[in-house]
Amino acid sequence: MTSERNLYISDVLLFQKTDSVLGTMHLLALPRKLFSPSLFQSNIAAATLLIIMAIVPVLTGCGGGGSAGGGSTTPPPPPPSADFSLGPFPSPATLQAGGAAQQWDPTLTLSGTAPGPVTVTFPNLPNGVQVSPSGPITAPTDGAIINLLVYATSSAAVGSATVTVQGTMGSVTHTYSVPITINATAPFQLQLSPPSLSLTPGGAAMVQATINNPNSVPIEGMGADTSSQRQDLGHPQIAYVSNNNYDLTFSVDYASPPASDVPVLVTAQSTAGDTSMVVLPVSIGSAFPPVNPANNRSTAVHTDEDPQDVVYDQARKLLFLAIPGLNQVRVLSSVDYHLVATIPVPQYQSVNSLPGTIDEAVDGSAVYVGGAGEIATINPSTLQVTGFTAVPQSGGSSLGFTQVAALSTGNVLVLNGGSGHVFLWNP
């Protein structure tokens, strides 16, 4: 059902048409002079047709009541899958059996959403062919360069072979086949003595290199190389000793981390280009002794005193602490750190620390405590004072502190702090 209403506003006719079937209302504004009252009714149909023609494209574009955006949205393409590549590799590579290593430096390239890392291995190496480091090797990020030393030992078969390099990142694996050619061994052989080496950070060690050269092939020189993990070992000092004999001195600084059996490739080369190579395993120890977790601060004992000096009786496992402020010697057990005894001993009072005021005889028979112009003797077995010995004084000098140092001869070196004189005392 359709209803119509007309309204004149100034010189404009507002024409309203409501369609109850479609549920829509259409409004058309036309100049009033186009319509006389007698022509108005005859023009209703034409106006309605104009309105419907204008509405149809709108309804068609809306897709029968679709979203305001107008039409369906094409989904974005999926992101590229995670992938990687390794390279370049030499093709082909030429090695000499028992000869120098060849360096390969493939680069990791990540693509798509690949986060890395990539694990690199060398499955099914030909007999006698070695790679250093041997793997697995982790290439962490895009652009990472993997430094490899590839060589053939003297047991490698002469001819053609293939080195397989495999990279794995999650479920993605790529395999690269590198053809190699292995030539015959050189007419000379290199030998090292010792065949392995151990270094301490900050230290050095020497290896003697001898070339077994029965055909007197002219030798051009010596060299050493390591993988990028331990470049600190790849530059030894090489000294020519005599014909076919060299000294190689390896050293590492204090910051070198510990390592075990790092392969150092020592190579001799002739003027003709032939090479002979020997792998020297090098181990690097720790610059610091191992830490014993049992010896920690949890065993510290606070005496709340101010010991001036201390001596340790190793046989009895006792610590004798001189405390001048209290005129006491405290005795502590080094086993469980409890207080064993408190011995009254007069001592020199000073605001300054005076080390050397207590010491023990070399045979452990007595403990000597320096006081104001005297020395007290303590029996370390009974923990009792057994006597006092006066220190010789110079005329007019006041009593000062006394320092004692027990000597290996059994005598005691005594310093009279008041006069500055030194005496040798035989207890």
Question: Could you characterize what this model shows?
Answer:
- This protein is mainly beta.
- The protein is built from 1 helix and 32 strands.
- A hairpin with a 4-residue loop joins β2 (12-19) and β3 (24-31).
Protein traits:
427 residues, mainly beta, five-stranded mixed sheet, four-stranded antiparallel sheet, 1 helix, 46% strand, elongated, disordered N terminus
**Helix count from the secondary structure assignment:** 1
Strand content: over 45%
Radius of gyration: 49 Å
How confident overall, as mean pLDDT? 81
Low-confidence stretches: 1-15, 20-28, 32-69
Distance between the termini: 137 Å
Q: Short description, anyone?
A:
Helix content is 6%, strand content 46%.
Secondary structure topology:
Elements: E1 2-9, E2 12-19, E3 24-31, H1 37-61, E4 83-87, E5 93-96, E6 102-104, E7 107-111, E8 118-121, E9 129-132, E10 137-139, E11 148-152, E12 159-169, E13 172-183, E14 189-193, E15 197-199, E16 204-212, E17 219-225, E18 237-242, E19 245-251, E20 259-270, E21 275-284, E22 309-313, E23 318-323, E24 328-333, E25 339-344, E26 358-360, E27 367-370, E28 374-379, E29 384-390, E30 402-406, E31 412-416, E32 421-425
Parallel strand pairs: 5-13, 15-21
Antiparallel strand pairs: 1-2, 2-3, 4-7, 6-11, 8-10, 8-12, 9-11, 12-13, 14-16, 16-19, 17-20, 18-19, 20-21, 22-23, 23-24, 24-25, 26-27, 27-28, 28-29, 30-31, 31-32
